[in-house]
Specification:
Chain lengths: 297, 670
């Protein structure tokens, strides 16, 4: 009987749970496919600078819009750059920005949502109105406005995406917290006299974490789309950095002469989004959350 | 002999476990139910009684499958019927009334529309006759004013009335057999008695067979002609209620009976130790061997067969002769009564009133007082140190509300709560001193709700220990183990999650958590009503031991008068949030003075055959307490007259310490 006995056993318990959830996801065909897609994208994004066959910014006017062949598997674009290289590297920026912005969104949205769920009453009602009003805004225009004002540097993008995509998380976290707050173990904790923060951390958070994780996965895919849309509109990544949104925008007009230059980034982006969505669905099922009950945003 | 309507033939049902073993839930059940007969199925939770009842409909919960045997209903093999044939039979000739069936009514449809729909599906009547038949059905289940009821929505009916509508719907297809799965659990005694009467009445008149599943032996004794006792998926005893409730021949039945608290007896019931084997856990011998007080060597080697004995009972035991030696009398001595006096009082409530009604902001702005009738009003009582006060009343009478106010979780409208040396305890728990919070602890009804499903027992117990005593490390763990041992669990429970424990074990953890604070008062809200009788007895024994060891006072809320009888020194009876009667438990139970207490006590179902409850005069839907006069005025069988509607009844003393609030003079009440 050592005093620390419970601590390592618990973390062991969590690891076992994580393993169980992963196993459950992999046991569903859609989950297995989704998770594989995501894993491949992550590995490629991290390793691409070392594995790509060409220099992504090497312009060669002689090679303009070459169709796929043995040297350039995916052909070349209108500046003669290797499409395979640029496609493999084109998700790095988007994934990096969204990988930081997603936890930010989930954290602040989740925290505020739980707080509202715990507070209840008029504050809760009032702030939810604000949230609903906010959600009805055309987000892309608001994002553009932010970028016009603050520029499109990476910190600005991260902050903007993290902020805007945290708003819908509030709803989900609040709904999840509402069902927990009414339960007797929270009442018991209040009666014992624990502080609000302690109640959130100890009693509520573990019970809404599952919902937040699934929501986080969904937010990630939406954010990727948003980021790519911004690049597409010319407000995200600046050339010559390869980026799917930018590549689609550049090659779009040449669709009829060089479809490969458009198709490659489109397939890459959509496979990642589909992969995330499949994984999120399987994750929700593995955790026993009914996605149908969640607020559609 | 009449041909059986429902027949189970050597039915075994089971599921495949993760490691691929086939685990039986029902084992070789053979049972025949004749038309017009009412058969009761009893047993602890998990004994397979609901599975058996559902199997009669050809229905198995997901994951279960038939291992062997057949079920026939009216000569048809239920498990070989197709979906559409099953659908025609279910709800038509064979109807099910599940637990909380009132809640299964469609909330957005009026009662009339729901009944019409049931008629359309399951009766051969001409649609023109539907309206008349609808009213007929409602009258049949003795709902008052059927014309008004058909226009209502389910939420506009009380729980008991909803349950009766559900029964009316089941009767729409003129079923030949009715399956009832715990139909009255969760209803209060008076409503329960009403519904049981009604069911036996209908069965008698129409020759309908009923299968009645319940862990409530009292209810079974009242309605059934034959009782089947189940244990670990097997029938262990079958006989008439008289045989089974007088002097049962099976050790398990004796244990079960002994664990039921009785109103007539102020002593603690004897707990049946241990728990039933999980599916697949029972060895080759008798499934009850591990808990049986008269277990023999042969019991562990050989499974006893179900065989008829001289009295006509069917029994599964090797040595029934020895079973007679198992004493069923409660053994624990009666609790000493602590006298409440002002110098030992820990809680003193004066004129406490609580209202859930939210005064609207406009009125508040105008400075108008809130004029709604409060949910709870005029509660004045004291609780002495180390004393147990039982608080009884039917569902919705405000028992939990009072506890919440004491715990600082519900604002009060007026009145004061004195706690020990504190004159008036803050109404909101946030404004109380940490030490005051420590000394008042709560235990809730349902441990599934009151224990965080994501916390291990160690984390659960650590909460109060860290908060109140700043314990950590070795000291924390040592104290947790000590607490677990106190509630008869061991250190090996520390790492379990609530989902890995049985109901009784969970409730023990909840009790350990309350006692971790070393409280002076523990507020117990229906702490045993989610538990099986056998487990309930163990939890009552535990609570009794803890209060003796620690001189803790309890306020013990329950709608079960027998449970209160077993534990309480004093009792307070509540009706619609108003106190009716208060006094020493022995006085109140022996000599109830208030008309409502009398009704309440006579409506109790004990597993006795002669018991016939006296019921409330009319079946009025009670929504809110009357604005003035006596709270019972609408249902009181002994109402004096107009005075009851206009004047608040005065308190009268029966004997010192025993008083009641009523206009009726005490001497004329016999
Ligand atoms: N939060 C609430 N808001 C409004 N009314 C409530 C609330 N909680 C309870 N009530 C009402 O207050 C009355 C008393 O409720 P309470 O829960 O105290 O009853 P109870 O005696 O504990 O009943 P039970 O035996 O069913 O637990 C009921 O009419 C109930 O409908
Ligand atoms: S067979 Fe043996 S163990 Fe089983 S109930 Fe009878 S005496 Fe007890
Ligand atoms: S005061 Fe009147 S209505 Fe109330 S209990 Fe007494 S007799 Fe009945
Ligand atoms: Mg209650």
């Amino acid at each position: 009987m050592t005093s620390a006995a419970t601590i390592p056993e618990q973390s062991g318990g969590r690891l076992t749970k994580l393993y169980g959830v992963l196993k459950d996801i992999m046991s569903r065909p859609s989950g297995a496919i989704g998770l594989m897609l995501v894993m491949v994208h992550v590995v490629v994004a991290v390793a691409s600078p070392w594995i790509v066959p060409f220099d992504f910014k090497r312009v060669d006017v002689d090679l303009m819009l070459m169709p796929p062949d043995g040297g350039h598997w995916f052909g070349t674009d209108q500046l003669g750059r290797d499409v395979l290289t640029r496609t493999l590297m084109g998700g790095r920026e988007a994934m990096f920005v969204t990988a930081i912005a997603t936890p930010i969104a989930v954290c602040w949205g989740g925290f505020l949502g739980i707080l509202l769920g715990l507070a209840g009453g008029r504050i809760d009602d009032g702030l939810m109105r604000v949230v609903d009003a906010f959600l009805s805004l055309p987000w892309i225009l608001v994002m553009l406005l932010v970028i016009v004002i603050f520029g499109s540097s990476m910190p600005v993008l991260i902050a903007a995406l993290g902020f805007f995509y945290g708003v819908p998380v509030i709803r989900v976290a609040r709904a999840a917290a509402h069902t927990v707050v009414a339960r007797d173990f929270v009442v018991a904790a209040r009666a014992r006299g624990h502080g609000r923060l302690a109640i959130i951390r100890v009693e509520i958070l573990p019970n809404v974490l599952d919902a937040l994780m699934v929501e986080g996965a969904m937010r990630w895919s939406w954010m990727l789309l948003a980021f790519s849309s911004l690049s597409f509109l010319g407000f995200g990544v600046s050339p010559p950095t390869p980026d799917w949104g930018l590549m689609i925008a550049d090659a779009r007009s040449l669709m009829s002469v060089g479809p490969w230059a458009v198709l490659a980034p489109i397939v890459a982006l959509s496979s990642l989004i589909v992969g995330i969505n499949l994984t999120a669905d399987a994750l929700a099922k593995a955790l026993g959350i009914d996605r149908a009950q969640k607020a559609p945003v | 002999m009449e041909p059986a309507l429902i027949r189970f033939d050597d039915l075994s049902v089971g599921f495949t476990s993760r490691d691929g073993r086939l685990l039986p839930v029902l084992r070789h059940i053979s049972l025949a139910i004749a038309p017009g007969e009412t058969v009761g199925l009893v047993g602890e939770s998990g004994s397979g009684k609901s599975t058996l009842a559902l199997a009669a409909m050809g229905y198995l919960k997901r994951g279960l499958k038939v291992i062997s045997g057949t079920v026939t209903f009216a000569e048809q093999h239920m498990f070989s019927l197709g979906g559409s044939e099953l659908e025609r039979i279910r709800g038509g000739k064979l109807a099910l009334i599940p637990q909380n069936s009132g809640q299964s009514l469609t909330p957005t449809l009026r009662i009339g529309a729901q009944l019409t729909e049931a008629l359309r599906l399951h009766s051969k009547l001409d649609p023109a006759q539907f309206p008349a038949r609808t009213l007929d059905l409602l009258r049949q289940v003795r709902l008052p004013d059927p014309e008004a009821i058909i226009a209502r929505f389910p939420h506009e009916l009380s729980g008991g009335q909803q349950q009766r509508v559900a029964i009316a719907m089941a009767l729409a297809g003129e079923p030949k057999a009715l399956l009832l799965d715990e139909p009255t659990t969760g209803l209060d005694v008076t409503t329960q008695a009403h519904i049981l009467d009604l069911l036996s009445d209908i069965a008698q008149k129409s020759g309908m067979a009923m299968v009645y599943v319940s862990h409530d032996l009292g209810a079974i004794a009242r309605v059934c002609q034959r009782v089947v006792v189940m244990y670990a998926g097997e029938i262990v005893l079958e006989g008439t209620p008289a045989q089974i409730f007088k002097n049962p021949t099976h050790p398990y039945a004796r244990g079960l009976l002994a664990s039921i608290p009785r109103v007539s007896n102020a002593r603690l019931p004897v707990a049946l130790e241990g728990r039933p084997p999980a599916p697949g856990e029972a060895g080759q011998g008798c499934a009850f061997a591990d808990r049986c007080p008269i277990v023999q060597p042969v019991c562990r080697l050989e499974r006893p067969e179900l065989r008829a004995i001289a009295s006509g009972e069917w029994l599964r035991c090797h040595v029934p002769e020895l079973a007679q030696g198992i004493v069923m009398e409660p053994m624990t001595a009666p609790a000493p009564v602590a006298e409440a006096s002002s110098d030992t009082a820990i809680f003193t409530l004066s004129e406490l009133a609580i209202s859930y009604h939210q005064a609207n902001w406009f009125r508040q702005l105008l400075g108008q007082a809130d004029k709604s009738t409060p949910t709870v009003k005029d509660i004045s009582l004291t609780l002495a140190r180390g004393e147990t006060l039982g608080l009884v009343g039917e569902s919705g009478s405000g028992k939990s509300t009072i506890l919440k106010a004491l715990a600082g979780l519900t604002p009060r409208q007026s009145g004061t709560i004195a706690f020990d040396a504190t004159e008036d305890l803050a109404a909101n728990v946030d404004h109380r001193q940490p030490d005051q919070r420590r000394r008042i602890q709560l235990v809730f009804q349902n441990p599934d709700e009151s224990l965080n499903p994501r916390q291990t027992v160690a984390e659960i117990l650590a909460q109060p220990l860290r908060l109140y005593f700043g314990l950590s490390g070795q000291a924390l763990r040592a104290r947790m183990v000590e607490l677990l041992i106190q509630v008869r669990l061991g250190a090996h429970y520390l790492d379990r999650l609530p989902s890995q424990m049985s109901g009784g074990e969970k409730q023990r953890v909840a009790i350990a958590r309350a006692f971790a604070a070393e409280p002076d008062v523990v507020l117990c809200d229906e702490v045993t009503s989610a538990l099986d009788v056998s487990v309930q007895a163990a939890v009552l024994t535990l609570l009794d031991r803890l209060r003796r060891e620690r001189n803790t006072a309890y306020i013990f809320v329950s709608h079960d008068l027998a449970v209160v009888r077993a534990l309480a020194d004093r009792v307070a009876v509540l009706y619609q949030g108003r106190l009716c009667e208060i006094g020493r438990a022995s006085d109140v139970y022996a000599n109830p003075a208030h008309p409502y207490t009398q009704v309440l006590l006579s409506a109790i179902l004990e597993p006795e055959l002669a018991a016939r409850p006296k019921l409330m005069a009319a079946d009025v839907q009670e929504l809110s307490p009357p604005a003035k006069g006596c709270a019972c005025q609408r249902r009181c069988p002994l109402k004096v007259g107009m005075i009851c509607e206009t004047e608040t009844p005065p308190w009268q003393t029966v004997t010192p310490g025993h008083s009641f609030a009523c206009h009726k003079p005490n001497n004329s009440m016999g």
